[in-house]
Amino acid sequence: MDQYRRLLGYIRPYWWIIVIATIFSLCASAVTGAMAWYIKPLIDGLKTDKNIIKFYPLIYIAFFLFKGLFSFAHSFLMRVVGAKVVRDVRQELFNKMILLPMSFYIKKPSGELISRVINDSNVLQSMLGYSIKDIFVEGATFIVLLVVAFVRRWDLTLLALIVLPFSLFVIDRFGRKMKMISQRAQEQISGLIVRLTESISGIKMIKAFMREDLHRERFEKENRNYYRIAIKGARTAEYSKLVHEIIAGIGLTIIMFYGFSLIYYEKMTFGEFFSFFGAISLMLTPIKRIGGANNSLQQARAAAERIFYLLDQEVEEDGRIELTSFEREIVYSNVSFHYPGTKRKVLEDVNFRVKKGEVIAIVGSSGAGKTTLLDMLPRFYKPTKGKITIDGIDINDLTLESLRRHIGIVSQDVILFNETVRDNIAFGDLNASEKDIIEVAKAAYAHEFIMNMPNGYDTVIGERGVRLSGGQKQRISIARAILKNPPILILDEATSSLDTASELIVQKALNNLMKGRTTFVIAHRLSTVRMADRILVLDRARIVEAGTHEELLRHGEVYRKLYMSQFRKDASAL
């Protein structure tokens, strides 16, 4: 029930629309009741006035017309409410997701999150647009028809109501089962979307390694599993309808023959019986639809649980101190880190300090923790032990906005958006002028190739910059970082995936970017290592050596091995 209470919080702003829709639903129910009520005077009146047949069809045409109009108005307004609520839920989900810590995204694949935002919220829209509509309209109709039946023959109505507890039992029993099936279906469709997003994002590698058949089989397996659950849900829903039909059929048969016996013994008129029987027959539709609506509500409840799980996640914890400038130094003090759910320490008791304006290179074997070490500086991850300070202030006490405003990042995995070149560069400063954007593009050696593109700075570059080469993407990201103009810079293997010609151009752009900034460089090229003021060597989760390139070649055993294995091919640069 807690899910329903929380959903009511999203519905509450649109109460006035629901009130209007409810009025229309009551009008539709009243018309349905009138249709059943006027059967008696029609049939009984035929005995005394044959002309009654002339105008009663017009009355019933009017009934159907008004019922249709009232039902349309109610259904449309409820669908409007459903669309508004789902819009609000999706926006809140996105607003929440954008504030969740990086540690959350390690645990949840993107496809599953997409499923919760799109698919689960669609289930809510179905509930609000159809299920609640049915409960409103059919519930009111049931009550109106019940009143008509009671007025006509209270004794027969009580007899008819004997089957109601059985119907309620069926609604409850199958509703619980639908909730469990729906939970499994939502989980399975998440898996389906995960497979789909992985295959689309990795299509280049799939084709390169000729793994089309493998991914086709994996998707087919997920698709088949979802199909089985969907069929199970459909079977349960149809079983529910079948049982309702049987219960209702038995009840109607008993009432019909008992009514005929009353007519035979002249204890009831034909008009009275058919008016009563019409009301009871019309009540079957509301009962069936309410049962179906209950099944949909249970499905929505399962979807709501998944949505509220996401909304209940803790967002990144913000500090209260505003970092107005970076003046002195950055200090890592006894910093340790391990990823949630794992015991292996990625970093252990790491200590070092970096003065303003220094260029620090971080080297180490693959998996040594280089990227994690620097990801903690903008608080993508928090140390499990120890602290990091900027000018003596613990970064956990700083506001995230002011901390990250002082840090620029250029990484090997360039993230660009399916927007224009201008928009991607302006991501570094949304208030930048056209002149500023062109200047930073020139500083990043990007202006020339941009002007050769079909629409220059207005060229849309595709998802993740798919229409650009690796070097071009990297230069766009460098222009973006220059525009941000941060005093602290993180370069995460920014040239590792480039060819020699592209690397030379990108390195010139990086040199422009690094001027006057405190820079951390995860290095894999000798040229990058040599320009550093200091080199920190990571091994087995610790900093084991520190010094200049020449000092470490003479005295650093771990660095010397790294040099022999990774940097020797660049030795001609010495």
Secondary structure topology:
Elements: H1 2-11, H2 15-37, H3 39-45, H4 52-97, H5 102-107, H6 110-152, H7 154-160, H8 164-201, H9 203-208, H10 212-264, H11 270-311, E1 329-337, E2 347-355, E3 359-364, H12 370-375, E4 385-390, E5 393-394, H13 400-405, E6 407-411, H14 421-426, H15 434-443, H16 447-451, H17 470-484, E7 488-492, H18 500-514, E8 518-522, H19 526-530, E9 534-539, E10 542-547, H20 549-555, H21 557-567
Parallel strand pairs: 3-8, 3-9, 6-7, 7-8
Antiparallel strand pairs: 1-2, 1-4, 4-5, 9-10
Query: What is the CATH T-level topology of the largest domain?
Result: ABC transporter transmembrane region fold
CATH level-four homologous superfamily name of the largest domain: ABC transporter type 1, transmembrane domain
How is the main sheet built? 6 strands, mixed
User: How much beta, percentage-wise?
Assistant: 5-15%
CATH top level class name of the largest domain: Mainly Alpha
Tally of DSSP β-strands: 10
> How many discrete domains?
2
Rg from alpha-carbon coordinates: 35 Å
Strand order of the largest sheet: 6-7-8-3-9-10
For the record, give the distance between the C-alpha atoms at the N and C termini, rounded to a whole number.
Answer: 71 Å
Average pLDDT, to the nearest integer? 79
Low-confidence stretches: none
DSSP helix count?
A: 21
Reported CATH architecture of the largest domain? Up-down Bundle
Q: What does the overall shape look like?
A: elongated
* Backbone structural class: alpha/beta
Helix content: 55-70%
